Amino acid sequence: MALDIGSWDLACDFNNTDHHTDLNGTDHLIVRRGQPFTINLHLRSGSYQPGAQLNITAQTGPQPVEQYGTKAVFGLSDAIDDTRWSAAVTSPPDDTVSLSICSAPDAPIGRYVLTLDGNVQFELILLFNPWCPRDAVYMDSEEKLEEYVLSQDGLIYRGDYKYPVSLPWYFGQFEEGILDICLRILDMNPKYKRNPGKDCSGRRNPIYVCRVLSAMVNSNDRDNGVLEGCWKKTFEGGISPMSWTGSVEILKLWDSSTCLPVRFGQCWVFAAIACSVSRALGIPCRVVTNYLSAHDTNANLVIERYIDENYKNVSRDMIWNYHCWVESWMTRPDLKAGYDGWQASDPTPQEKSEGVFCCGPVPVRAIKEGELTFKYDAPFVFAEVNADVEEFLKYKDGSTQKIKTYTSQVGYKISTKSVGSDEREDITHLYKYPEGSPEEREAFKKANHQNKLNKQPVDFGLNVNIKVALEMRKGCDFDVFAVVTNNTSVDKKCRLVFASRAVSYDGNNGDECGFKDLLNVELPPGGERKVPLRLNYSKYCNAITEDNLIRLGALLIDYSNREAILAMRTIVLENPDIKIKILGEPKVNRKLAAEITIKNSLPEPLGACCFSIEGANLTGGKTITESIPTTVEPGQEAKVKIYFTPTHHGLRKLLVDFNSDRLGHIKGFRNVIIGK
Hints:
Structural class: alpha+beta
Largest sheet: 6 strands, antiparallel
CATH topology of the largest domain: Coagulation Factor XIII, Chain A, domain 2
Number of strands: 36
Strand content: 35-45%
Strand order of the largest sheet: 18-17-16-14-21-22
CATH superfamily of the largest domain: Transglutaminase-like
Distance between the termini: 49 Å
Number of helices: 13
Shape: globular
Number of domains: 4
């Protein structure tokens, strides 16, 4: 006997809340796989009788086929079977039937059409389910799920390994329209266009989805990717990557421009977009920063770095001051046991993988153990955190001299935001054993690089180190020092080149900020000389990028044997602090004001000053901006009040961006507890 269904209620409010998707809204049914949801069927006549039949079809994609998991046909059972698509009646006999439906825990994610007895049809969106033990992305920690799936804001680390700088970021994965955009990204990928049935079937596997996202977040393959990268000093035709405060605006711009790439992004922006999309689809994800990150262009696990006699970089291999990628949590049934958990993938376009600009996912543990045959792109990620570095001096006559081999100059302070707090968590130990330890060298040996293991740095008896002040604020003049020591028993006569150059975070040197070439540095046995180099604001102000990075290099050449010694150090100039004060009682639907102040630390006026705020459930998914019509003189404060109205209770982050013609973008944030 078939059910005579008159109308139905998808119970979106109840289901979406139960499936942790209510922040997406409750006007559409959004559920997670492997977990039952309930719909109510109102019968036209009679009441439900046990034994009644109901044929249900669930299908996704343009070419649904049962064989590939994109179509499921099933009927009523006595109880829900959470290993496959199933349905059961959960209400007593009445004219309203509560029907519980459960998807397979490995069903492809995406948009579904469910058809009941051929005449009742409704749509739903199915997501990965990290709360379900049978799902490949299952994570057994409510605290971590709150951080890595549900949190709409976070911190991304930039700066330098000696001075990590936290950048607040608004992931916004639950903002209105964002989930639809994330599904559109999947549908724009070339694999879908070539074979939509096969691609939709692949969406049952988080490994496949992560690899697609790694390729689609960047646009280097001219595949309608989300972001175009730019690492130049100017950003004509777009805007500076430093101007972004979150993912929502970028994703909406891409969607509204018929999928033209948004200009411009750099590594932290690529990683943040990948994190937003992953969390939106239900994959636990976090942004990771690797300081002193190697970019190995010839896949030999060695960074060959060449400098000339004026301390100018002339190499192709690079060491980025920092580099950001993402980690996603999942099982790896395609690999041997022990490699489940965090998987690294990198959407920043650097090198091609299988003909496409993408990287990963590769188990973090595989990197630590030197298992470079594991999918995907293990050698490239291994080099980023654990490559050896060989430095060469290139003389004017074209000859080269090897200065040193370093085994511990890459992969420092690998960082991510701590669970449940704004502290930095150091996860270097997940990627590598302690530098120089037998385990670390064994992992390097396993990575087929035995010929570099036994080389020890040569001590020529001369040493050079770089010392800096404790505080180096942007706008000030200050000294840095090269300290040269002679540990030999003979007099030494040397040449010292002490140089400073603006540097971008990806390791590319810019203009000179200060230079000193001393041709006759004489040192008696045991002698020491401290050589200052003045860095004047008037010299570095137009040279540095918004990264505020200056690379110092001290090159010492011993005239007696032409041996060279090199010391390098990167410094980060500190921006003035943003002060944020919340005016009013923070409660849902009550207007508040953020009073924001910043002091001009430069010796010149600031023009084009503008404050912006943004925050999950604070600013309605929009950026609210307030400009200052006048210039701000040296030592004066720029101050505004910006009003906003919270829409949800709980702990929220208000993200602030200050921009001006001379200071560039400066970020800040304040945690706000919104009452009910």
